[in-house]
Amino acid sequence: MNKSLRSFNTFGIEAHTEELIEITSVLQLRTVLKKITHPFYILGGGSNILLLNDLKGVVLKMSIPGIQIERDFKHAVYLSAGAGVNWHQLVLFAVKNNLGGLENLSLIPGTVGASPMQNIGAYGVEIKDIFHRLEAVEIATGKSKIFRKQALAFGYRNSIFKNKLKGKYIITKVWFKLSKPPHRLHLSYGAIKTVLAGAGIENPTIQDISNAVIKIRSEKLPDPEEIGNAGSFFKNPVIKKKLFAELYEQYPDIPHYPQSDGTIKLPAAWLIERCGWKGKRVGNTGTHVRQALVLVNYGNAKGAEIYTLAQEIQESVCQKFKISLEMEVNIWV
Ligand code: EPU
Prior knowledge:
This protein has 3 domains: 3-62, Uridine Diphospho-n-acetylenolpyruvylglucosamine Reductase, domain 2 (2-Layer Sandwich), CATH 3.30.43; 67-219, Uridine Diphospho-n-acetylenolpyruvylglucosamine Reductase, domain 3; 228-332, Uridine Diphospho-n-acetylenolpyruvylglucosamine Reductase, domain 1, CATH 3.90.78.10. Helices cover 24% and strands 27% of the residues. The chain has 7 helices and 20 strands. A 5-stranded antiparallel beta sheet has the order 6-7-12-10-11. The chain has a 4-stranded mixed beta sheet with strand order 1-2-5-3. Uridine-diphosphate-2(N-acetylglucosaminyl) butyric acid binds next to strand 13 and helix 6.
């Protein structure tokens, strides 16, 4: 079997795999893991990967379904979702049922199973804020294990599954602790305030926030259905005070976000734009016209072409600002 992965990655890269197996239950996953002899790859929504070549091995497409209200308390609800559930469908379910906590994370592409791996985040909220626990199958033994929040060592676009436990477990189900009204709303992000004010909304509901986030994302970020991309290609770098002081002297308009440990987070988009890359097209690839942090596929880009552009961007940012940008997208070779 030689299966095209073009429709399985939001970059829309044409690459092939020897076999693709759709996983719809934990039981099936265990059986497949027992039988499998080739190297294999775990695929969710394909929204955070860059395929460099055809894959030598099997792709396990995680499609475990199901959204369920597990426990319903006076002030909170425990909601679970299978790894294969589309992230935005989960957000819509929560918002429709007036369960708070996911609304700022509206319209993020990808699946529930992949969401805790990189602690997805947007508009002032990260998954760690509402995460309760997850169930994952250990690849070596096929046994299921529960991981609670503390065990995940969540960080900025980071968790234990990107470090110590990388390649050891497959996430099958995730539980979230969501609020019942009155909700604690996250309105600190400037763009949300602007959209709500523009619509004349003074006391927003979680539905209003979700709508605002959908509007902001749709206006700024390219729709993968129309133009291939994987969201932010790099992480926002966190630098030491000393380097920041040097940069600030040279670039007093540099946007910056001081962190609680004294380090400073800078928007990678700004650094990339200042290096002249924003909206620039190089062959079949380039950076998005409205968001320099998003690399795009104009049609027939090869993974390697996008990867080369990413490396060129890293080099110019390093030369100009002495900062190494770390790729946020996972590179599959
Ligand atoms: N900016 C520029 N040029 C640009 C775009 C932005 O200079 O082309 C500057 C502006 O100063 C702006 C700042 O960068 O104020 C931040 O931009 P934005 O609000 O768009 O956020 P970001 O830091 O670029 C992060 C996440 C996004 C998330 C947004 C909103 C990362 C790597 N990315 O982007 O997440 O949607 O914040 O919260 O942290 C993703 O991870 O795929 C993703 C899209």
